[in-house]
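Before relying on records like the one below, remember that each one covers exactly one chain. Contacts with other chains, cofactors or solvent are not represented anywhere in the record.
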Amino acid sequence: MIRSQVERNEVVHAQIALIVAIALELFLDKTLVVGPKFLIAGLELLLVFGIGLTEPHRETRISRARRDVSLALIALISLANATSMALVARDLISGSAVAGKTLLASAGAIFITNIIMFSLWYWELDSPGLTGIRKHDSRPKFDFPQMESILPENKGWEPTYTDYLYLSVTNASAFSPTDTMPLTHSAKALMSLQALVSLVAVVLVTARAVNILG
């Protein structure tokens, strides 16, 4: 019963993160979004409901199909967010009709959304979280410090969505692994991509902020 409650909390935490992403998407200026902003927000809302339909400990054709649909939605949202970041970068470099402070705020919103989307990628890669199947039925993709701990309370410890969100935050802000190490090529590729996107965003935003505020 305790484990089931933990699993329910894990799903709720992922849903809350996505709701934050929806709010940030609606905040963006329409010129920084490819297509109607409500379309992307709608896809994110659909993903919120999709994650809520996970069935712990069960792997069926339905759960596998649900995972495929959820992954497709994450990929589409990630692509849309990356496109918005590219539009912001273009405007930060060449200038645009959008006010400078609005561009900076939009870049911050996209940066946070990027953290949320990569946390979902990590969650799915290592769990897989979107199916509800328990973690580490196969080889772990990340080495969390609790896995190496000799403390008795960490025996049998498994990461939840919050751990993957923390991993995404630290990787985006430090541009490198901190306390959690990637163990596979796919995990390293995802973390490298996130670090590069974050680095570009921070450099461009800093340069523009100095120009606006200086």
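The chain has a mean pLDDT of 78.
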